[in-house]
Amino acid sequence: MIHWRQVAAAVYIDLHTSNQQQHVRLSGRWTIDQAQALERRLKQLQLAPHPRVVIDSRGVESLDLTGGWQILRLFGQLQQRGLQVELIPDERLGLLRELYHQGPLEPPPVPRPAWWSKPVIAVGQWSISKQNDVAYMLVFLGRALTTLLGSLLQPHKLHFGAISQQIYQTGILAVPIVCLIAFLISIVLAYQGAHQLRQFGADIFTIDLVAVSVLREMGVLLTAIMVAGRSGSAFAAQLGVMKINEEMDAMRTIGLDPFRVLVVPRILGLIIALPLLTVLANLMGLAGGALLSNRLLDIPFEQFLVRLEEAVVLSTWWVGLVKAPVFAFIIAFVGTLRGMQVSGSAEHLGHQTTVSVVQSIFLVIMADAIFSIIFSELGI
To answer: What DSSP line would sit under 80-143, residue for residue?
Structure first.
């Protein structure tokens, strides 16, 4: 029998070699303060080419994760050399025994999914993501509606300064671009309609076409799309930056509710501003139709007003105006929702801002289609 011992400070490695096996007895302090000595002595450990090795750690006085990892690494290296290795852990070392029963140190390779399962996995991941998104949206909607109704029932809790600021930013500052777009679209609509109706000698009905289209659909829809791109994205960006800078956490710390301070003023401000912008868009649309009718069809403004009175009834005006508060709520809801979902990075902020604009426009158009079906069924 051969006996060999390595000593490094408080680290001891005793090696007993017999004809049948090699017995490695560990003792001393196997802790992080002995890491360098452990690393050096384990590299110097020379084992004879016996097929069986026994590692006995019952003599270890002190052991932490560093020492345990060194023992397990030795165990794994010997296994990789094809040796039959037995590890005798100390009864006190429950963590070491648990790691030992998990096998070698190197984790087993993760099996790659088959090529045909990748589309299924992608669909499943997308479904789970959308499910979580819808669940968060419903929770956010419920809390926003609850806070909004609570604020309306208790007006003294409303932040009128913040609401007026939102009306100014989303309404007054948007007047030039909304009026310009409505004016130009009505000119395009009147020109194309007049070109087609002239073939049948029905030029006068261009006024009907422009008036009904602008008042029922185009005025409110174009205004909502412009506001979604302008104000909806601003809501998402503003709240997203506040979320990244932890300003909302600071507000909660001092006892302020972010929904009452940030979400409700934006929703109420846009609900007030969008109908007013719709009225201006309708008037500018009619003005554009009147201008083109006068220049292209030689229809005097007086005749335009007379025909407008015959073609438009009061319900035509209200059909478009009723949609405006609903569209405003959708835009403000989506913008604040995506802003509250921002987390971590500027890249995620940009992504959520883009998503807010796309989803707002999509939901506005879908809501407009639902309104059209409802009004058609009601005969309005």
So the answer is: HTT-EEEEE--TT-HHHHHHHHT-SSSPPPPPPPPGGGHHHHHHHHHHHHHHHHHHHHHHHHHH
Calpha distance 373→268 (Å, rounded) = 27
93-102, 113-122, 247-256: range with highest mean pLDDT: 247-256
Q: Is the pTM of this model over 0.90?
A: no
Hey, what's the torsion of the CAs at 111, 115, 121, 122, to 10 degrees?
130
Predicted confidence (pLDDT) per residue in 309-332, tens digit: 888 888 888 888 999 999 999 999
CATH architecture of 2-101: 2-Layer Sandwich (3.30)
Predicted confidence at residue 252, as pLDDT, reads 87
Domain segments of the chain: what residues?
2-101, 146-378
Residue/partner pairs of 231-234 with CB below 8 Å, 24 or more apart: 231/169, 231/170, 231/174, 231/270, 231/331, 231/332, 231/335, 232/331, 232/332, 232/334, 232/335, 232/356, 232/357, 232/360, 233/335, 233/353, 233/354, 233/356, 233/357, 234/169, 234/170, 234/335
pLDDT tens digits, one per residue of 71-110: 777 777 777 777 777 777 655 555 555 555 554 444 456 6
215-225 average pLDDT score: 91
Q: Are 187 and 291 in contact (CB under 8 A)?
A: yes
How confident is the model at residue 205, as a pLDDT?
82
* pLDDT at residue 70 in the model: 75
Cβ neighbours of residue 301 closer than 8 Å, sequence gap 6 or more: 290, 294
Q: Which residues contact 266 (CB under 8 A, 6 or more apart)?
A: 166, 235, 332, 335, 336
